[in-house]
Inverse folding.
């Protein structure tokens, strides 16, 4: 069993040692990649555990980014300007958006499979159009000069080392939180819903509320990533809430491994890094290469490239004698 844990532990150990190996610029870049890893595991949670293929994960990411920016810049009436309060609002905004989307889609007849994905595509497109035309939140240009998170000792998250360690800490917390939920009795029911929703309903579980909670938890983690994005990049724009980013997040999770949190996390880091490298070497053709790679992985590796490597042992309570 310990051997199954080693790859996951090794990843966190390597990430913790990166400040000893990289310069300030590379460290800041890796801090940004970790943010994408956080939003990737938020999708892997609902996709791998609940079978919910969301093409609108950027909705929750963008909601968190805008909540963080508006609060940190003091643009919300009656609420003091505070980056840390903004980060809390980012998590809350992502979770609330997730609950609202889930409530709208899962109650009543309840959308399943491809229909859920289609509606989330439409929602992402609508959200991007709304933010583009909403002047209060910056419109097409977005919001600039989002302040960093203040830290003890006169530091803030704009410092490469402090910012990296801060994001790494939040990434670890998000991973442990979703892992705990995944391996809890709630996670077991969620996997049952993914495998056979009607059977779970026949056992007395009210499936819609379980799905709504899952989407709210996923949205909260994505909102956290959005809040960190806003404070690390110091700006937010309609692009962070639209279909393009949602599709990227889907690719990250699928390439790494949609059913395993750590696989999706590493998938996001590797794919996003390769996107930057390819865009510098082959220009706009990087989109073509990424698309082809995604198709190949989905066809040849349904569990992703890293799913088997980072798959953790089954919880004790589910093991046979």
């Amino acid at each position: 069993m310990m051997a199954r844990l080693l790859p996951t532990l090794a990843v966190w150990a390597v990430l913790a040692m990166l400040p000893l190996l990289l310069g300030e610029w590379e460290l800041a870049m890796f801090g940004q990649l970790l943010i994408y890893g956080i939003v990737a595991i938020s999708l892997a949670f609902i996709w791998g555990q609940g079978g919910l293929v969301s093409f609108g994960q950027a909705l929750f990411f963008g909601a968190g980014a805008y909540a963080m920016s508006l609060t940190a810049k003091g643009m919300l009436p009656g609420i003091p300007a505070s980056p840390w309060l903004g980060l809390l609002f980012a998590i809350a905004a992502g979770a609330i958006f997730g609950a609202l989307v889930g409530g709208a889609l899962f109650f009543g007849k309840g959308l399943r499979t491809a229909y859920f994905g289609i509606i989330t595509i439409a929602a992402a497109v609508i959200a991007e159009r709304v933010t583009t035309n909403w002047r209060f939140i910056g419109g097409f240009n977005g919001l600039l000069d989002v302040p960093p998170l203040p830290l003890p000792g006169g530091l803030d998250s704009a410092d490469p080392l402090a910012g990296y360690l801060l994001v790494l800490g939040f990434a670890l917390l998000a991973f442990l939180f979703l892992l705990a939920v995944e391996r809890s009795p709630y996670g077991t029911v969620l996997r049952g819903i993914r495998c056979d929703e009607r059977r779970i309903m026949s056992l007395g579980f009210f499936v819609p509320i379980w799905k709504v909670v899952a989407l709210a938890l996923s949205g909260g983690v994505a909102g956290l990533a959005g809040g960190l994005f806003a404070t690390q990049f110091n700006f937010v724009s309609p692009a962070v809430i639209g279909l393009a980013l949602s599709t990227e997040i889907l690719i990250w999770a699928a390439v790494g491994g949609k059913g395993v949190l750590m696989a999706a996390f590493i998938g996001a880091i590797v794919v996003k890094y390769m996107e930057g490298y390819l865009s510098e070497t082959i220009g706009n053709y990087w989109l073509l290469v990424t698309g082809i790679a995604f198709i190949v992985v989905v066809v040849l590796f349904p569990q992703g490239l890293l799913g088997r490597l980072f798959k953790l042992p089954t919880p004790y309570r589910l093991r046979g004698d």
